[in-house]
Amino acid sequence: MKTTGDRIVFEDTAFLGNQDTLMTDSPKLTTVSRVYIRDSYIEGDVDFVYGRATTVIERSVIRALSRGSATNNGYITAASTWTGNPYGFLITRSKVVSDAPAGSFHLGRPWHPGGEPQAVAQVLIRDTELPAAIKASPWTDMSGFSWKDARFAEYRNHGPGATVTADRPQLSDEAARSHTVTAYLKGTDDWAPHARH
Fold first, then answer.
1. Which of 74, 117, 128, 163 has the fewest CB atoms found within 10 Å of its own CB?
2. Which of the following is catalytic: 6, 12, 20, 127?
3. How many independent structural domains does the chain possess?
4. pTM above 0.85, yes or no
5. Is 99 assigned a catalytic role?
6. DSSP states of 67-131 as a string?
7. Are 153 and 170 in contact (CB under 8 A)?
8. Is 61 part of a structural domain of the chain?
9. Residue 87 domain flag
10. What per-residue confidence (pLDDT) applies to 197?
11. What burial letters (b/e) apply to 12-48, b meaning 16+ CB within 10 Å?
12. Strand, coil or helix: what is 167?
């Protein structure tokens, strides 16, 4: 599935695939498109939630599929957020499940399409259950770009894969108050699809 438009909502939707399952994109790097996904199911192995759209995944199940490796079964996200956009991917109040071996799955890596330096991944995973399959150092480099230059963070995750280590940036309580579903989707037109229920 690929989207490029703005103000797209998926509810009770299943996205099934392996690599590159769901691409939420925008017409061009500096154009911000917003996508809201709720009560849905997304599965895959390599870079299976990716692109540059501002994307909120809420109350959903994300299944990280095993590729049969003991050490690296894949990467959940590969964001390519425009550096001028503070909001990339937000995964919140969700559950990541996996039958991959413990410590064999990454939360993500920074995708710079065509080596574009102005695409600097922004991913926040908060209030979400993480399985043992998630690595203790869950973010990794991609195509010569360091994950440490990307905007990766976690906040109040739980479960066996949610250990806090030196390689897992945590959002402060103060920053967490401004990194909400509302903030990600608001844009310049106060879009609030999550408030309709």
1. 117
2. 20
3. 1
4. yes
5. no
6. -S-SS--EEEEEE--BTT-S--EEEES-EEEE-SPTT-EEEE----GGG-TTB--EEEEES-B--
7. yes
8. yes
9. yes
10. 60
11. eeebeeeebbbbbbbeebeebbbbbbbebebbbbbbb
12. coil
The side-by-side arrangement of strands in the sheet containing 14-15 is 14-15, 41-44, 61-64, 95-98
Q: pLDDT tens digit string along 148-184? A: 999 999 999 999 999 999 999 999 999 999 999 999 9
In a domain, 132, yes or no: yes
Is 156 inside a domain boundary? yes
Percent of the chain with pLDDT over 90: 98
Q: Is 47 a catalytic residue?
A: yes
pLDDT in tens, 105-151: 999 999 999 999 999 999 999 999 999 999 999 999 999 999 999 99
Q: Residue 2: which of 73, 55, 70 has the closest Cα?
A: 55
Nearest 5°: CA angle at 169, between 81 and 82?
A: 10
| Containing structural domain, residue 160 | 2-191
Q: Which residue matches tokens 């500096």?
A: 30
Selecting among 6, 45, 47, 149, the annotated active-site residue is 47
Q: List the structure tokens of 184.
A: 């990600």
20: left (phi over 0), alpha (psi -120 to 50) or beta: left
